[in-house]
Amino acid sequence: MDDMVNHPPHYNQNGIECIDAIKASTGDHFKDYLKGNIIKYLWRFNYKGKPMEDLRKARWYLDKLIEEEKEFWTLGEHWAESDSDKLDVARGRKLKRREQNDASI
Q1: pLDDT at res. 14
Q2: What CA–CA distance (Å, rounded) separates 59 from 61?
Q3: CB atoms within 10 A of CB 14
Q4: Is 17 among the domain residues?
Q5: Using the 8-state DSSP alphabet, how is residue 16 labeled?
Q6: What is the rounded average pLDDT of the residues 24-49?
Q7: 38 with 61: CB under 8 angstroms?
Q8: Which of 6, 15, 52, 54 has the fewest beta carbons closer than 10 A?
Q9: Does 25 have pLDDT greater than 90?
Q10: pTM above threshold 0.90
Q11: Any domain includes 73
């Protein structure tokens, strides 16, 4: 039986998942796309006749958003839990880039 939440067959063309094409085409706005779909599925779950499927789809997009955020805010093995941790991670990356640029001069 087809998995209509994680891998619906109509979202795969020539071996390319639609979500991967969307990520490639939206770039920095991919997370906004994910948030929009979370809202859409939560908004409609009581009205389309398949509430559990819509809730699972909302969760799928939320899990994808969490995965994207983890990828962005993880530095080594340390997960940034708070906003100040995120700022520290971002500052550390900026400092690291600066050091790499200075070393290449």
Answers
A1: 84
A2: 5
A3: 4
A4: yes
A5: E
A6: 95
A7: yes
A8: 15
A9: yes
A10: no
A11: yes
Domain boundaries, position 54: 9-77
Per the domain annotation, does 45 fall within a domain? yes
* Residue 17, SS3 per DSSP: strand
Average pLDDT over residues 1-16: 79
The answer to whether residue 88 sits within a structural domain is no
Taking the C-alpha atoms of residue 51 and residue 87, their distance in angstroms, rounded to an integer, is 38
Which amino acid makes up residue 62?
L
For residue 5, what pLDDT is reported? 82
- Structural domain total, the chain: 1
* Phi, psi values for residue 8, rounded to 5°: -65, 135
Distance CA(91)–CA(65), nearest Å, equals 23
Mean pLDDT for the stretch of residues 24-52: 95
Closest C-alpha among 9, 5, 25 to residue 17: 9
